[in-house]
Design a protein that fits this description.
The chain is of the alpha+beta class. It has one domain. 25% of the residues lie in helices and 38% in strands. The protein contains two helices and seven strands.
Length: 138
């Protein structure tokens, strides 16, 4: 009986480990491997600081941080125009002196959001921190 319990526990542990390490794999995390999706380009005077790309189930997502010499309003407006030109619908927008935010979607799964809600702690002096989240349709 003990032998059977030990084999069961060991098998369960192995299967759980395989399942855990197979989910949500990061597939890129460097600027060199990241391309701005949906036919968009990097906004002028803006650079990629960090990005994490991964799968949530079968859905590809990316979260990242941009740094810019421009104002947050200029960068968010740049992407708003570019997203509209790429067929996205802006469904949420905030444009105040302290916060610039857009959220857009296209079709049944493409999603893009961007905001300057960061505290500028991860960018150089004189730069503005802008965070983005992207979800790709299957």
């Amino acid at each position: 009986m003990n032998s059977i319990n030990h084999r069961f526990i060991f098998s369960t542990l192995i299967l759980t480990s395989i399942a855990f390490f197979s989910v949500d794999k990061v597939f890129a995390s460097s600027e060199a491997e990241f391309e701005v999706p949906f036919g968009l380009t990097m906004a002028p005077e803006t650079r990629l600081v960090d990005v994490a790309q991964y799968y949530v189930g079968t859905i590809k997502e990316a979260n990242g941080l941009l740094a810019t010499k421009k104002t947050a309003k200029e960068v968010v407006s740049y992407y708003e125009r570019a997203l509209k030109a790429a067929g996205f619908r802006i469904f949420s927008k905030t444009d105040t002196p302290t916060r610039n935010y857009i959220a857009a979607k296209r079709g049944k799964g493409d999603f893009f959001s961007m905001s300057n809600t960061g505290d500028n702690s991860e960018v150089e002096p004189g730069e503005t921190e802008i965070r983005f989240m992207i979800r790709y349709a299957n």
